[in-house]
Amino acid sequence: MFKSHREKDGLLWRIEPIIEVLRSEYGISLSPSGYYDFKSRKPSSRVVRDELFKGLITDVWESNYSCWGARKVWRELNRQGKTVARCTVERLMRELGLAGLKRGRRVRTTIAGKHATCASDLVNRNFTASAPNKLWVADFTYVSTWEGWCYAAFVTDVFARRVLGFAVSSKMNEKLVADAFEMAVFNRSAEGRDDFSELIHHNDKGSQYTAGDFCERLAFQGIRASIGSVGDAYDNALAEAINGSYKTELIFNPKKGLRIPAACGH
């Protein structure tokens, strides 16, 4: 502001008359000594720290497809040993104009089998676990491609909040969810965590999960089945959240240019 006024019309104006106009016309109390003190003052420790974290926040946000919100950015910074308050991350992201992506509407994919025998709901919307291999949640979602609908299934360990198994297919069938389950079993077994005796596998009431062959897979591993109700996303809320994050961050993310993804495999 001062610079633009000082060099107005090709002339260099002194600070004193500018300050006088600000005081008389706008009621701004400012002295020449105060202005020069401001110009020569070093940045405060908060300003220096904010600038440092602005760079770190931007790096984390951009390296994760420019789609994370303040909560995920804050957690990643703390995982990296950069201790910072969540409210600080929220404030700096607002100043930087950074924000997480918002999810769109979903399409119904849970279709219950007409004559399926279902297990009880052993979770009751309590998506917590005391250790790995205590609770897995599973679900699948749809993706529109140039060749038609594509379906992606996930199995997530609740304790680690980690996707252990996934599968992609052009068919919404039992093999899709079975492949994701078998990948989860293989990955955990490869890590030396092959004891599934205390594990609960929770999913919705879709016919793919209530099919006899899939139930036999669970029983073979000694895993207890748990099934939520039809048409209630809250009964499998964590799995629904995984689906939403997958589509928002990797499929419909405008930063990745993936509004319509390439054709999927079988």
Structure description:
The chain has helices spanning 2-6, 15-26, 32-40, 45-63, 70-79, 86-96, 174-190, 207-210, 212-220, 237-251; strands spanning 135-145, 148-157, 162-169, 200-203, 224-227. Helix content is 42%, strand content 14%. A hairpin with a 2-residue loop joins strand 1 and strand 2 (148-157). The protein is elongated and about 85 Å long. It has a five-stranded mixed β-sheet. Helix 4 packs across helix 5 (70-79) and helix 5 (70-79) crosses helix 6 (86-96).
| Name of the CATH homologous superfamily of the largest domain | Ribonuclease H-like superfamily/Ribonuclease H
Number of strands: 5
Number of helices: 10
Largest sheet: 5 strands, mixed
Low-confidence stretches: 258-266
Order of helix and strand elements from N to C terminus: HHHHHHEEEHEHHEH
Structural class: alpha/beta
**Could you tell me how far the N terminus lies from the C terminus, measured between alpha carbons in angstroms?**
62 Å
- The best one-word shape is elongated
Cα gyration radius (Å):
28 Å
The fraction of residues assigned to DSSP E strands is 5-15%
Instruction: Return the CATH class of the largest domain.
Output: Alpha Beta
Q: Strand order within the widest sheet?
A: 3-2-1-4-5
Compact overview of the structure:
The chain has about 270 residues and is an alpha/beta fold. The protein has helices at about 1-5, 15-25, 30-40, 45-65, 70-80, 85-95, 175-190, 205-210, 210-220, 235-250; strands at about 135-145, 150-155, 160-170, 200-205, 225. The chain has 3 domains: about 1-40, no CATH class; about 45-95; about 135-250, 2-Layer Sandwich (Nucleotidyltransferase, domain 5).
